[in-house]
Design a protein that fits this description.
The structure holds 2 protein chains of 2 kinds.
Chain A (H helix, E strand, L loop, with lengths): L8 H13 L15 H32 L3 H5 L13 H7 L2 H32 L7 H13 L4 H10 L6 H5 L6 H12 L3 H9 L4 H12 L1 H17 L2 H6 L8 H10 L6 H6 L9 H36 L1
Chain B lengths: L2 H9 L4 H32 L5 E2 L10 E2 L3 H7 L2 H21 L1 H11 L4 H12 L6 H12 L4 H8 L11 H28 L4 H9 L4 H12 L1 H13 L6 H7 L5 H4 L2 H11 L3 H30 L5
Antiparallel strand pairs in B: 1-2
The chains are: A mainly alpha, B mainly alpha.
C-alpha cells in the first residue's frame, strides 16, 4: 500500500517524529506578524471550535463517571449530567462485591495475556521471514497473508470451524480467531526490512544461524515495534466480545466485555446479585450498575493510554507509509 | 552490497536443496504462522462450499451433499435479503459520506494550531474513543439516548417531548453514524496530519508570492498535498463499506428498529446461528464477501486509471 509517492528516507523519519512528538509543522514563511486580520480571527475561531470538539468528545465519559457515583433514583429522574447527584459509593461496593464481575475481569486479563503472547509469536515469526528479501517464495508468503485482508471466510464457516475443532467453550475460541492481524504483520515486516543489514551479515560471518540472528540480533533491535504491536494486540483482546459471544456458553468463561454486554442488553441473570445489592428486585439492571461496570472496564485503558498513545500513532504511521 | 548478500542472490538461482540448506530455518519459522493462516483463514474460505451443499450441524464441516445453487436462488428470491441489502448500502454509504471527509477537516484545523501543547491535548482527547470496546460505545450511546439521558434532558428543557431514540427506526441511522463519528474521526486524522507535514514549504512560499491568501493556499497547496492519502483511504473505505460495523449494529438494534437497522451481516447471523440455517447464511455471507472483493478491486482499478494512485 502506497500512501505517499514521495518516499525519501529522511522525509519518512522526519514525518514520523513530528507526529509522534506532536510537534507542530514549521511555520509558513512570513511568520505570524504578517498574517491578515481575517486569518487571525479564523485562528481564534479555530481554537474555540477545537475546544468544543474536545468537550463534546469527553462529555460521554464525564456523564458516565457522574452516573457511576449517583443514586439510581437521580438517574431515573433525569437529573444527572456532568456532576453526580446523590453522591455515593454503594454501586462501586455492590459491583466489586459481585463475584461474576471479578471472574469476568480475571478472564479478560487471562485472554488478553495469552492471546497477545500467541499473536506476538505468530506475527513476529512470519513478519521476520517475510522481511527477508532474498527468500525464495517470499512473494507467495506475502500473497497468502495479504489476500486474507481482502477476502474472508465469514461468520458462518468460522463458526463451523471452531465448532468442529471442538474449541467452543474453551479459551482458545476467544484467542485463536484473532491471533494474527495482517495489518500488524505488515507493520512488523516493514520494520524488520529497515533493520541495518550489516549487523545481521556480521553475525552470519560469526557463524550465527538464522534463528540466532533473529533471536540475538533482530529481536533486541526491534523493541519499539514489539512494544507497539503488543499494545495493539492487548487492546484488541481486551475489547473483544464477539468471539466470546459466539463461542462461549458458560458464564464462568465470559470476559468482562461480554459480561458488560449482557448487563447493557439486560439479558442476564448473572448480575442479579449486584442489582439486588443496590436495591433492585426486578430483572432490569439499574443504570448506575451499568455505569460503574463500564467505568471499571475503561479504567485500565485510561491508565495506560497516556503512555502508549504515541506508540499507537507510530504503529499506524509505520503501517501506512510502508505497508 | 556486501559479499554475503551477493552470495544469497546467487543462491536464489540454485536448486531447492541448496535453498533449503541455506534458508531452511527461515521456512521452519514460517511454518506455524502459515499453518495458522491456512487453518483459520483459508479453511473458512473453503468452508463456504456449504453454501452449495447440504449441511448437517455436527456433521462434515464441508457439508453432506451438493445442492447446487439452491441457497443462492433462495436469497435472491428472499425479499428480506434485498431489504437488508439496501439497509446495508444506505448505512454504509452514509457512514462513508460523513466519516470520510470529517477527519480531513479536523486535520486541517489541527494543522493551523500553533501551540503544540494545545494541539497535543486535542489530539489525545479525540483519539481516545478509538480505544474503547464497541460494547462500551454501545453502552454509552444507550445511556445518552435513554429517556433519562442527556439528549432527552435537553429536549425536555427546551419544552419538547421525550423521544425513545433507540426504539425509533427513523433515528437508527443518525445514531449509528453519530457514534461512528465520535469514535473514529479523531483517530482518522493521524494519516492526514502525517501527510501535511510532508508538504514542501516552498510551495506555500510560491503561493504567497503569487498573492494567494490562506484559503487559496489551503485549496491549491494543502489539499493537493494530501490527495494521495485521501485517495488511498477512500479506496479502502469504498472497498469495505458493505462491512458496516456489524458488531455495533448487533449491539444497538432491536426488533423495533429492524426496518432500518437490520444489515446483511446481522440478518445472516440470525438466519445462521439463531435459526441454525447455516448453508443459507453461508450463501449470503459468500455473496457479501465477493461483493467486497469486487469493490476493492474495482475502486483500486478506477483510481489507478483516473488518478494514478493504487493500493498495490
Amino acid at each position: 500500500m502506497i500512501l505517499d509517492p514521495v518516499k525519501t528516507e529522511e522525509r519518512e523519519s522526519a514525518r514520523t517524529e513530528t507526529i509522534v512528538t506532536g510537534r507542530p509543522r514549521r511555520t509558513r514563511p512570513g511568520g505570524l506578524p504578517q498574517e491578515s486580520k481575517g486569518y487571525r480571527v479564523y485562528l481564534g475561531f479555530n481554537a474555540v471550535a477545537l475546544v468544543v470538539i474536545s468537550a463534546v468528545t469527553l462529555y460521554p465519559f464525564a456523564t458516565l463517571i457522574a452516573q457511576s457515583f449517583s443514586s439510581s433514583g437521580a438517574i431515573k429522574a433525569g437529573l444527572v449530567n456532568l456532576l453526580p447527584v446523590g453522591f455515593n459509593l454503594d454501586t462501586y461496593h455492590a459491583v466489586t462485591n459481585d463475584q461474576h464481575f471479578w471472574r469476568s475481569y480475571g478472564n479478560t486479563v487471562m485472554y488478553t495475556v495469552v492471546g497477545t503472547l500467541v499473536a506476538m509469536v505468530l506475527t513476529t515469526l512470519l513478519a521476520y521471514v517475510m522481511s527477508k528479501e532474498h527468500l525464495r517464495g517470499r512473494n507467495v508468503l506475502i500473497g497468502i497473508a495479504v489476500f486474507t485482508m481482502f477476502f474472508n471466510g465469514g461468520i458462518i464457516p468460522n463458526y463451523v470451524l471452531i465448532s468442529s475443532l471442538e474449541l467452543k467453550n474453551t479459551m482458545w475460541a476467544v484467542i485463536l480467531p484473532g491471533a494474527m492481524s495482517v495489518f500488524n504483520l505488515l507493520v512488523m515486516k516493514s520494520f524488520f526490512e529497515n533493520l541495518p543489514r550489516e549487523l545481521e551479515e556480521a553475525a552470519r560471518i560469526d557463524g550465527l544461524g538464522w534463528w540466532g540472528i533473529f533471536w540475538r540480533i533482530a529481536m533486541p533491535l526491534s523493541k519499539p515495534v514489539i512494544a507497539t504491536m503488543t499494545l495493539f494486540y492487548s487492546v484488541q483482546f481486551w475489547n473483544d466480545w464477539f468471539s466470546a459471544f459466539l463461542y462461549l456458553d458458560q458464564t464462568d468463561l465470559y470476559p468482562l466485555s461480554l459480561h458488560l454486554r449482557n448487563l447493557i442488553a439486560g439479558a442476564t441473570t448473572t448480575t442479579a446479585e449486584s442489582a439486588a445489592a443496590v436495591g433492585t428486585t426486578s430483572a432490569a439492571i439499574k443504570d448506575n450498575v451499568k455505569a460503574v461496570t463500564m467505568v471499571l472496564a475503561i479504567i485500565p485503558i485510561l491508565c495506560v493510554y497516556p503512555f502508549v498513545q504515541r506508540h499507537f500513532v507510530s504503529g499506524v504511521m509505520l503501517g501506512a507509509v510502508k505497508g | 552490497m556486501t559479499t554475503v548478500t551477493r552470495t544469497l542472490r546467487r543462491k536464489a538461482r540454485v536448486p531447492w536443496s541448496n535453498t533449503l540448506r541455506h534458508d531452511g530455518v527461515l521456512y521452519a519459522m514460517a511454518l506455524v504462522p502459515i499453518a495458522y493462516l491456512v487453518l483459520f483463514r483459508y479453511v473458512p474460505m473453503i468452508g463456504n462450499v456449504i453454501a452449495f451443499r447440504k449441511f448437517r450441524p455436527g456433521g462434515n464441516i464441508l457439508g453432506e451433499e451438493w445442492v447446487g445453487l439452491r441457497y443462492i436462488s433462495m436469497f435472491i428470491n428472499d425479499p428480506t435479503f434485498w431489504h437488508v441489502f439496501s439497509n446495508t448500502a444506505i448505512l454504509g454509504g452514509l457512514t462513508l459520506l460523513v466519516c470520510f471527509p470529517l477527519p480531513i477537516v479536523l486535520a486541517l484545523m489541527l494543522n493551523e494550531v500553533r501551540k503544540k501543547a494545545f494541539k497535543g491535548v486535542v489530539q489525545s482527547i479525540t483519539y481516545l474513543p478509538h480505544f474503547l470496546s464497541i460494547v462500551i460505545v454501545a453502552g454509552i450511546v444507550m445511556q445518552l439516548l435513554s429517556l433519562e439521558g442527556t439528549v432527552n434532558q435537553i429536549i425536555t428543557a427546551m419544552g419538547g417531548e421525550k423521544i425513545p431514540f433507540l426504539q425509533r427506526p427513523e433515528w437508527f441511522r443518525t445514531i449509528y453514524v453519530g457514534s461512528e463519528v465520535w469514535q473514529t474521526v479523531g483517530w482518522g486524522t493521524i494519516l492526514y496530519l502525517a501527510a501535511l507535514t510532508t508538504i514542501d514549504e516552498s510551495l506555500y512560499e510560491a503561493a504567497r508570492i503569487d498573492g494567494a491568501g490562506r484559503l487559496r493556499q489551503t485549496w491549491h497547496v494543502t489539499l493537493p498535498g494530501i490527495r494521495p492519502t485521501m485517495i488511498t483511504l477512500l479506496i479502502l473505505n469504498i472497498g469495505t463499506f458493505l462491512n458496516v460495523g456489524f458488531e455495533k449494529v448487533l449491539l444497538l438494534y432491536m426488533p423495533l428498529t429492524y426496518e432500518t437497522a437490520d444489515v446483511i451481516s446481522t440478518y445472516l447471523y440470525r438466519v445462521g446461528l439463531v435459526s441454525n440455517n447455516l448453508s443459507y447464511a453461508a450463501a449470503i455471507g459468500l455473496f457479501q464477501a465477493c461483493i467486497g472483493l469486487v469493490m476493492v478491486l474495482s475502486a483500486n482499478l478506477i483510481s489507478r486509471r483516473t488518478v494514478g494512485a493504487s493500493l498495490w
